[in-house]
Amino acid sequence: MFETMKAAYAKSDKGDASGYSNWRQYSTQAYVSDTHGGRYVQNWGNSAAKAYGLYENAGTFPPGAKLGKDSFGVNAKGDVSVGPLFLMEKMQAGFNPDSDDWRYTMVMPNGSVFGTTNGAGSDNVAFCIGCHQSVTPEQDNVMLLPEEYRVK
């Protein structure tokens, strides 16, 4: 399934959609994320996001830190399908105070961009901001994966 997801996202002109799989993987396996539509997700981070591996102690991320979650769904018949790729990137101060300067992007399985903060379809990813703002400020709007799925 992983190769199928990579091929689907690579259809996008969003560079991170094809490059995220070269980042460090922080999940030991796919797990169900209710906040991502009940899909199975895996967590990834680029080198600027290396503090993500400190989990609750990660602190504030620097501009250029990128986190991603690829996803897939399984229906009642057991059929598996590629879901969206969820990306967040810490931008320079002032980019978007409402998101604490995170840019959220959702790439669909056909490679199209459903939305990106301060860009095309920005309203489509506004829910990302609202959800991530529920995280304690010490975690810089970053939701953490369940402990049992964390790479140590």
Provide an overview of this structure.
There is one protein chain. Helices cover 13% and strands 26% of the residues. It contains 3 helices and 8 strands. The protein has helices spanning 2-9, 15-19, 126-132, and strands spanning 24-25, 31-33, 39-45, 66-74, 80-82, 85-90, 102-107, 113-116. Strands 1, 2, 3, 4, 5, 6, 7 and 8 form an 8-stranded antiparallel sheet that branches. The longest helix has 8 residues, at 2-9. InterPro entries: Cytochrome_P460, Cytochrome_P460_sp.
Question: What is the strand and helix layout of this fold?
Answer:
Layout: H1 2-9, H2 15-19, E1 24-25, E2 31-33, E3 39-45, E4 66-74, E5 80-82, E6 85-90, E7 102-107, E8 113-116, H3 126-132
Antiparallel strand pairs: 1-3, 2-3, 3-4, 4-5, 4-6, 6-7, 7-8
Protein name: Cytochrome P460 family protein
Pfam family, one: Cytochrome_P460
Domain Cytochrome P460: 19-136
Oligomer: single chain
Low-confidence stretches: none
Straight-line N-to-C gap: 24 Å
Q: Regarding CATH, which class?
A: Alpha Beta
How many independent structural domains? 1
Shape, please? globular
> What composes the largest sheet?
8 strands, antiparallel
What is the H/E string?
HHEEEEEEEEH
Please give the count of helices: 3
Helical content (DSSP H or I, runs of 4+): 10-25%
CA gyration radius, whole angstroms? 15 Å
Beta fraction: 25-35%
Structural class: alpha+beta
